[in-house]
Amino acid sequence: MEGERKYITCEELKEHNKPGDLWISIQGKVYNVSDWAKDHPGGDTILFNLAGQDVTDAFIAYHPGTAWQYLDKLFTGFYLKDFKVSEVSKDYRRMASEFSRLGLFEKKGHGAMYSILIITTLLHLVVYGVLKSESVLVHLVCGMMLGALWIEGAYIGHDAGHYQIMSSRKCNDIAQILAGNCLTGISIAWWKWTHNAHHIACNSLDYDPDLQHIPVFAVSTKFFNSITSIFYGRELKFDPVARFLISYQHFTYYPVMVVGRVNLFIQTFLLLFSRGNVPNRALNIMGILVFWTWFPLLVSCLPTWNERVMFVVASFTVTALQHIQFTLNHFSGDTYLGPPTSNDWFEKQAAGTLDISCSTWMDWFFGGLQFQLEHHLFPRLPRCQLRTISPTVKELCKKHNLPYRSLSFWEANKSTIRTLRTAALQARDLSNPVPKNLVWEALNTHG
């Protein structure tokens, strides 16, 4: 009976936000996810960030309808007493329900098949060109094709990581390891760890790892206060080294993107050989060993060291296009401090995200991520459906007076450089005292 229900307030729910005591609310019912955190497929970071509040919108975004049946065993018996659903959230939930009714989450299209075909073709051409040709120009082109192969592989790994490309979770897991670890050398475990946190806390300076690139980049002057990264669990120190590097970040942006892949390799090893809990650690390490077997072997087949260096640099340079795209989507978006809150899921995603406008025939190049806001709102939606829902998302943003930013690739680059330059010029202000620190933290590591 309604009168027999037990209620807690939002303030009481907030008290349950620590490891070992993690409560959340979904559509008014309160759940204890303390024990579930270690087994959560999306990792425990998400639950730590959202614990103590209503997570209905985030749950709808990330989980299929079949997930609701597993909530009952986590139910505390309490209901949330005084939570008010915003009008934006109501519209978002109706939109998600309508997309589900239309079957858009199940209509996966043939994008994955085309990507696999492209990857297979490029891999054969690269190997054939390296082994059978003595032309320096052919070897240069092969290096560039390898970069394109890595880009397509990353898109496959990304889609599989969001369980978009296949109906079976096991098949998606296999696709992740093959496309991520084996093909690109980037651990899918590392990617999930950072990417899920990024989605949940989009453009939070202290919660979103995709913005925490001190001392190389700072998209906001708030980093000059040496804020603490909740994700990495350490202080992001703005010391003399950081001041110097950030002062020229609008000039170093593109060169850093070229060598950014090296940082991803390092991050992969740091996580896989850390003492923390890494899901499927052994499988991830085996996949990385596959990459570090075939890639050095392929490079060693080139006749001279000059050609080997040229080959690697060419592949990294092409892949930098993808690294640039990832930063264009968020570097010039609105930022904030603190965790995401329960009732502004849609607003935070819209404020911190930038779409890249392009023709339909260029969708393959961006892997669907040109519709970044649409992807953030509905991460399980197959990439072939993102253009379909774009007008609906745009209309909802207009209805609630929220930003819907869609720029050309060129304009997005200008916007990002402008953001970096603004922070760079302020970093040069010598009247701003810098705490002394001799530790060189040139890589965004987790310690």
TrEMBL record:
Signal peptide: none annotated. PROSITE patterns: CYTOCHROME_B5_2. The chain crosses the membrane at residues 111-131, 137-156, 253-273, 285-305. It is found in: Membrane. SUPFAM superfamilies: Cytochrome b5-like heme/steroid binding domain (SSF55856). InterPro entries: Cyt_B5-like_heme/steroid-bd (IPR001199), Cyt_B5-like_heme/steroid_sf (IPR036400), FA_desaturase_dom (IPR005804), Fatty_acid_desaturase (IPR012171). It comes from the Eukaryota. The keyword Nucleotidyltransferase does not apply. Residues 5-89 form the Cytochrome b5 heme-binding domain. Belongs to the fatty acid desaturase type 1 family. This is Delta(8)-fatty-acid desaturase 1-like. It comes from Prunus mume (Japanese apricot).
